[in-house]
């Protein structure tokens, strides 16, 4: 019998399980959030080509986001990597996930720009707070500065380049203008991660 979902979320599971679950190539939903899984994100996650939801938030994962995640073209419901210790940049291959609706990268140590998110045009939930992102916010992401401005907190280097005819610029007071010196709401101390994708998962 083929199983389309694996939900081990909200336990105290330890170890490095991601290489093992990568063999479950028919999975649609993988929910391992809020455990104590450690290690890195293996390239073998790309074997889960049917996956539409990947929940790995709230573990002890380290290292970079592998470019291989960009091959999971069916990933649409959610990609949650929040509350880990991930570092370096968002790989440009994540821009291939054009069906993605919810993305949570908050509470990591990611850096660089958000240009890759410019390809994700059907996002309806985004959280990049409390990282080390910098540079301009892509135009298609400006809508979240109005709906969920706290999703950008904790990234002092982020800024906006807003044209006056952009209807989503009303909430950009939470970030400084690019090239300006205004203090914005992207500054701030860390706090408990928001439960962005942690409801109605079980």
UniProtKB/TrEMBL annotation:
Q: Does the keyword Chaperone apply?
A: no
Q: How does it sit in the membrane?
A: Single-pass membrane protein
One cellular component term (GO) for this entry is: membrane
Principal place of residence = membrane
Signal: present as a keyword of the record? Answer: yes
Write out the ranges of the annotated region (Disordered): 182-202
Arranged from A to Z, the UniProt key words for this protein are: Receptor, Signal
The protein's location, in the record's own words, is:
Membrane
- One GO molecular function term? protein serine/threonine kinase activity
Name-wise, this protein is Leucine-rich repeat-containing N-terminal plant-type domain-containing protein
Per the UniProt record, the source organism is: Setaria viridis (Green bristlegrass)
Where is the organism placed in the taxonomic lineage, from the top?
Eukaryota, Viridiplantae, Streptophyta, Embryophyta, Tracheophyta
């Amino acid at each position: 019998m083929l199983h389309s979902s694996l939900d081990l979320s909200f336990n105290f599971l330890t170890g490095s399980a991601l290489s093992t679950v990568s063999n479950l190539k028919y999975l649609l939903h993988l929910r391992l959030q809020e455990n104590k899984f450690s290690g890195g994100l293996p390239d073998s996650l790309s074997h889960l080509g049917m996956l539409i939801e990947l929940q790995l938030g709230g573990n002890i994962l380290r290292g970079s986001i592998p470019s291989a995640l960009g091959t999971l073209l069916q990933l649409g419901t959610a990609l949650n990597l929040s509350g880990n210790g991930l570092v370096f940049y968002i790989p440009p291959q994540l821009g291939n996930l054009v069906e993605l609706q919810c993305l949570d990268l908050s509470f990591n140590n990611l850096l660089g720009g958000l240009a890759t998110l410019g390809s994700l045009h059907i996002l309806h939930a985004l959280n990049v707070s409390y990282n080390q992102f910098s540079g301009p916010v892509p135009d298609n992401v400006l809508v979240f500065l109005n709906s969920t401005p706290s999703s950008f907190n904790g990234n002092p280097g982020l800024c906006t380049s807003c044209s006056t005819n952009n209807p989503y610029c009303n909430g950009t007071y939470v970030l400084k203008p690019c090239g300006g010196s205004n203090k914005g709401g992207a500054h701030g101390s860390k706090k408990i991660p928001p439960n962005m994708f942690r409801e109605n998962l079980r």
